[in-house]
From TrEMBL:
Protein known as: Partial AB-hydrolase lipase domain-containing protein
One Pfam family, short name: Abhydro_lipase
GO BP: any one term: lipid metabolic process
Origin superkingdom: Eukaryota
InterPro entries: AB_hydrolase_fold, AB_hydrolase_lipase
Domain Partial AB-hydrolase lipase: 22-79
Amino acid sequence: MNDIGDQCPPLPHPLGMCKSRVAAFGYPCEEYTVTTEDGYILSLKRIPHGLSDADNSTENTRPPVLLFHGLMVDGFSWTEYTKAIAWLHFGRRWV
């Protein structure tokens, strides 16, 4: 039998994605927890507007964008660097 040791995945960032990643880039972020009927607990993040429209005047006129990550990835993959897909959507005026 092979001894694989402690190869557990790292724990999530203690501040959560909004505070540790999104706010670091200057964007507002909201976090929600949803429990499905079958007991799964989902963590949802919402970035309500971009940096240039803090007055929320266009918040209800832009189409929403829903990003899903795969099984072995988390939401940090959408905000990993300045040209990540989440930031590109804001540049195109999508929410």
